[in-house]
Amino acid sequence: MEISIRDLCMTYPNGKRALNGLSLELNAPSLVGLLGPNGAGKSTLMKLLVTALTPSSGTILADGRAVAKTERALKSQLGYLPQEFGLFDELTVAQFLDYMAALKGLRDSKTAVRKAIGAVGLEEKKKTRIRALSGGQRQRTGIAQALLGDPPLLILDEPTVGLDPEERIRFRNLFSQTAQDRLVLLSTHIIEDVQSVCDRLVVIDRGRILFSGTAEQLIRNAAGHVGVFWEHDTARERGLHITARVNTSRGVRCRAVADELPDYAEPDEPTLEDAYLYLISGEAHR
Amino acid sequence: MGKIFIYECKRLLCNKFFFGILLILLFYGRQVLNDITIMGVSHTAPFSAWSFGDYLSRMIPVLWIATLLFLTFFTSPAARRVSVLTDAAPMPPRRYEAVRCCAALAASVLTALVCIAEAAVFYGVYFGRCDIGSLTAPALVTALPAIMFALGSGRFLGQINERLVYIWMAAPLAAAALPLPGAMGIWNGSFFTEYPLLTGSTEPAFAVPAEIAAVQCAFLVCGAVMSVCRFGKK
Question: The domain containing residue B84 runs over which residues?
């Protein structure tokens, strides 16, 4: 699966510009992490990829064919989990997945449903009505429907929201395994999730791509721009962005990113979170 | 397609709303049968096609509301949240909508059959007779266009705004209160109470004048067309 996005623009009817000339190439196998602040355009990009929205301009090609013209062919290869979704509360987990398998036109729906339920660990709840599920279990049901039929393209918008830490780790490992032979696009706010499993990061802000590459490359960009220091009045100086603030017996230890570190800050190795914040905060000043 | 139809029927029929509707329908039907139908309409027997048609026309508001309530399973905000998942599936939207409309139609027809069955039991108990064959024509001409039009128009309004579906539930009540033209006499029941008197016969055979048949056909066709059309855009 190959996705090619060229000069994609999206302006909503209310005039809000969500994407602004975005271009991107995505090739399988890969697990691509999509990062960006709220309102950056991540969900809009995903909705455009699944043809839930029509772009104002620009093209999206899937395996060389415009998705707008081959919507059905794209959807037959797609597993999609949106950020916000509903489920049929009257049905059981297995029935809902069977319903979705029928909609996806899967021939061996029984096997597909069993496999998806097993993948998300809902075997014990498969005969439970959806209305009786917890938030995390509903989210897992949503992930299961995206995994039905092992689609070659998986688009997951904030898939680990509502999951406990143990489940989150389990699922990011599942996504990593899934991406061994297909293309997985994962949008999240949780930096840890992308650092652990994604082989490529795409950072979006205000509808434009700020960075596309590996986590190591993003971290390298922030080298020399991360420092730690004891809390100081001058920490409020312009251009210094505190990323962590820890109360200790000796006082308050701060960690910050800046284009130019002040003299009193000791340089430190950047983490992915530092690098991300450095990129986003730098962009905010431009 | 068959599987989706069965699951949609299950969603519509296996819940407390359906049983609530059935209870209201049976209670109201019993009242109409015991208070009005038992005396017969326009000097015809209580078990005549005319009296039965009058009974069904009085049941139209409940059947109409039941049909629109079934539609709210597809137009409610909760259902719209599920549509973000179903829209991403490769099944053509028109086909999917058609399957869902068929499920709503099946549920509505089942509700109408319960209504008819109640009348059949009433005739059996009180008069020891029930000629199903003679009841078919008034059932088809009265209930089917009303159900189909409720389905199509309700679906059309539901795609604009779910609240309109609830407002639209009052339409047959308004029709019963308004002086409708003679061709729409089935919608306020005047056809069953007035037309037999015009024939000059004491027990006239059931017949539907051309203008009433045309109006009922028009409602049926409009409902069917609106049921399969998809409105709105991305």
Answer: 2-228
- Single-letter amino acid, residue B181: P
Cβ contact (<8 Å) for B234 and A89?
A: no
Contact B28, B55 (CB under 8 A): no
Picking from B153, B134, B135, B155, the residue whose alpha carbon sits closest to that of residue B145 is: B153
Residue B130 resides in a domain: yes
Cβ contacts of B84 on chain A, cutoff 8 Å: 52, 82, 84-86
Contact predicate A222/A278, CB 8 Å: yes
Q: Tens digit of pLDDT for each residue in A66-112?
A: 998 899 999 999 999 999 999 999 999 999 999 999 999 999 999 99
Give SS3 for A130. helix
Residue B233 lies in a domain: no
Interface test with B, best of A44, A80, A99, A109 (most B CBs within 10 A): A99
The tokens for A7 are: 């000069």
> Looking at this predicted complex, what is its ipTM?
0.88
| Structure-token pair, residue B161 | 């705004």
pTM of the model: 0.87
Number of domains observed in the structure of chain B: 1
Q: Chain A neighbours among B 71-90 (CB < 8 Å)?
A: 78-82, 84-90
pLDDT of residue B123: 92
pLDDT > 60? residue A198? yes
Query: What is the C-alpha to C-alpha distance for residues B137 and B140, in angstroms, rounded to an integer?
Result: 5
Q: Which of A166, A143, A167 is nearest to A155 (CA)?
A: A143
